[in-house]
Amino acid sequence: MIIEHPSRADLLQAAQSLKAGKLVAFPTETVYGLGADAENDHAVELVFKKKGRPNDHPLIVHIADMHTAEHFACNIPPFANVLMKQFWPGALTLILQRQPGIANASSGHQSTIGLRIPSHPMALELLGIAKNLGVLGIAAPSANRFGRVSPTQAVHVAEELGEGLLILNGGASHIGIESTIIDCSRGQPILLRPGQLSSESLEQVLHQSIAQELIDETPENSSPKALKAITPKVSGRLLAHYAPQAKVLLLDCQALEQRLSSYMPQPRAFIGVWSASSLVLDSKTFLYQAMPQRAEVCAQVLFSTLRAFDKAGVQEIWIEQPPFAPDWLGVNDRLKRASHAQ
Ligand code: TXA
Ligand code: MG
């Protein structure tokens, strides 16, 4: 059930549902989250079930304020405090050492925990009300089925996870891709997942360089045994992730043009084309969408564009490879994973 324009009373009711161990989907500035009381292991189990996600993949715990970080995390290094002060509320998740015994299920029983204060006003209000009811953190992965495209609108959540779920509509997520994840649990900052907030902007504040550990796990080495060897786990790092139903091909400009010009129309073939070059194509065979020229704008519409292609019934989506520039890192990361899914 989607709650349109939730009032404070609606948010109170949603917080009460969380307190009672139920799930609530809510908007954030990055993507929509599927929330549960982070300290209720039973409720957190429901999140894993609903998403179809292996329950040793840890969830991000959303908190209302910086003070609450100390409830969930310990030995917070000074550089993590600097990042919190500068970038929270915002699209930055920090992996920290976990307070022993706290939020076991949310953390996938790892010794670390991922924390974030989102900046979406409705998420902040919900977190504040929930905190007053004794729910100190809301564990929330993106509100999609495991491995699929993340939702950036309330209606996407309803399509993914069913009408029965309580969904707070806070409009379209304005960032559109998931938060940047920095591991702060190993003595130095390490980028695990790129997002809109770039390493460069974090480095400028820290006066320190940020290592990268964007391991390209292939389906072969993502077997449970191989995954155990990779700590900490970040499911968004699986090479095949963020997948629409249609097969995605990521092609550089030349390869795309060549493919288009040599394509022999097949009966009933319908192909989505997402390209920054303006193209005039036969609309019986091709569904063309213009790709925004700016990385930020492209990120905003990335997941909804993939969804729209699926909805239109295309069998393949041919995407023009965006520039390999720092500001495109988050978008390129999602596109690469979407194209590896089939
Ligand atoms: O923008 C976002 O981060 C969104 C919104 C809802 O906040 N959430 C999100 O959650 O993307 P999810 O579960 O789809 O991705 C969270 C990522 C996963 O890849 C998970 O493995 C990683 O964060 N993560 C969470 N806790 C971790 C930990 N303790 N160690 C390493 N990775 C962790
Ligand atoms: Mg996700």
Q: How is this structure best described in words?
A:
- This protein is of the alpha/beta class and 342 residues long.
- It has two domains: 2-228, DHBP synthase, CATH 3.90.870; 247-339, Threonylcarbamoyl-AMP synthase, C-terminal domain (Rossmann fold), CATH 3.40.50.11030.
- The chain is 32% helix and 18% strand.
- It is built from eleven helices and 16 strands.
- The strands form two sheets. Strands 1, 2, 3, 4, 5, 6, 7, 8, 9, 10, 11 and 12 form a twelve-stranded mixed beta sheet that branches. It has a four-stranded parallel beta sheet with strand order 13-16-14-15.
- Helix 1 packs across helix 5.
- It is globular, with a radius of gyration of 20 Å.
- Residues 217-232 have low confidence and may be disordered.
- The protein binds threonylcarbamoyladenylate (TXA) and magnesium ion (MG).
- The site of threonylcarbamoyladenylate has 28 residues, from strand 6 and strand 7.
Following the backbone from N to C, one meets helices and strands in this order, namely EHEEHEHEHEEHEHEEEHEHEHEEHEH
Q: Give the % helix.
A: 25-40%
CATH homologous superfamily caption of the largest domain: DHBP synthase
Q: What best-fitting shape do the alpha-carbon axes yield?
A: globular
The number of helical elements comes to 11
CATH top level of the largest domain? Alpha Beta
Task: Give the overall average pLDDT.
Answer: 91
Number of domains in the coordinates? 2
Extract low-pLDDT stretches: 217-232
The radius of gyration is 20 Å
Strand count: 16
CATH topology of the largest domain: DHBP synthase
Q: Report on the biggest sheet.
A: 12 strands, mixed
CATH architecture of the largest domain: Alpha-Beta Complex
Strand content: 15-25%
Derived from helix and strand composition plus strand pairing, the structural class reads alpha/beta
Distance between the termini: 32 Å
